[in-house]
Automatic annotation (TrEMBL):
Belongs to the outer membrane factor (OMF) (TC 1.B.17) family. Keywords: Cell outer membrane, Coiled coil, Membrane, Transmembrane, Transmembrane beta strand, Transport. It comes from Winogradskyella marina. The keyword Membrane applies. The lineage of its organism: Bacteria, Pseudomonadati, Bacteroidota, Flavobacteriia, Flavobacteriales. InterPro entries: OMP_efflux, TolC-like. This is TolC family protein. It is found in: Cell outer membrane. Residues 242-276 form a coiled coil.
Amino acid sequence: MKKSIIVTLLLFGVIVQGQNKKWTLQECVEYALENNISVKQSELDVLATDIERLSAVGNFLPSISANSGVSENTGLSFNPVTNNAQTTTFLSVTGRVNVGYTLFDGLRNFRELQRADISKIASQYRLDKMKDDISLFVANNYLQVILNKANLEVFKSQNEVTKAQIQRTQELVDAGSLPRGDLLEIKATDASEQQSIINAENSIQISLISLAQLLLIKDYENFDIEDEGYDIIDEGISEKSVSEILSKAKETRSEIKIAEQNVELANKDLQIAKSANYPTLSAFFGYDTRYTDAASFDQRIDPNNPTITQEIGTVQGTGQVVVGEVPNTFAVEVGADPFVDQLYQNDGISYGLQLNIPILNGFATKGNIQRNKINLERTKFQLEQAELDLESTVFQAYVDAKGALKSYEAAKSAVESQQLAYDYAKERYDVGLTNAFDFSQSKLRFDNANIELNRAKYDYIFKLKVLELYFGIPATELKF
């Protein structure tokens, strides 16, 4: 009984612990990379290139095929062994093995193998880019939850001050030191703050659900994140010049590598299309045999009268008849030879070379070459555009990070100023030198300054990490 209770308590503790689990940003990113549908689709694209390469390797192997047939004929038919017409019913079996090998096809097989290798590299780069995008998307949603939680703490902290002011104002109103309007003003402020707290709680739930959906987690009610220990961690990226970051981005970013591989793929497609202009030389070998259970007729010499005299012609001019002795034979029906014996007796082989020279095919090859030339030029333009887009994006990310830092520093200064103004207003309100409306306005400005500080802080954190990503730091190694 005690063991059952202990086991039950342990299981309950494990369940509760699982329900109260708070996900870290690193756990969220790793979970998303393992379960996100877009990432899985990109992984399938990489696996598909393995199949493409397998087919390309298979083109270097000979083609081997075998076929056989069994038939039964009734009536007048040709014996497949003797090739004589027979009116009977017989069973026949045929078999054949063919081997073919391409000796030369304009290097098409080599080009297709090279194309398969390039395609695999391009797919891997697309997978890497997808992982970077998902990691940043998760980080952005994660920081949004932290921002909403930080704002909620601001609202709750200030509401505690408001509630204390309500109690103090109530005492002063009861004592006749303050008018009742001040109490009503403070209570109105409390009601407004309560509404802000409710809205902040709703924002947290919505952002948590959004993050859970991104991670494909359906237990929304128990899903939560670790909201402590995240601060601004600058590993020197803010001190680097934009040209240095751009140079590093061109070396490491998947967008450029994907565009470069697309140019290589288009070039290989052009080479493959041109190979159709060359002759194709192939070798072949065939082996076949047959069997039939049909009886045949054999000519045999009469042992009692082995020869007979027979007219064999006439002398030209005189017309004299010429006679001679010929074998005296008669036909004897003979049964079919055994199956295995016939396979050896009736087999045959064929082998040789085949040369196919393209001459004219309605300009299909020429048109295909022209299309691939155009596609090659298009991919070159796309590579150039990708470089320009990356340059623009890096400059924008650099400016955004610098601007976010200035906004964060300005927000800190604003909080410090509003803190002093709020403390001063509170002191004046406590001694009755200002009314509740002026005090509540000062408090509202202080609350808004704290909320803006939170927004600026996490906005700067995210934009700083975007800049680090462009500098070549893997998404899974970003520090928050």
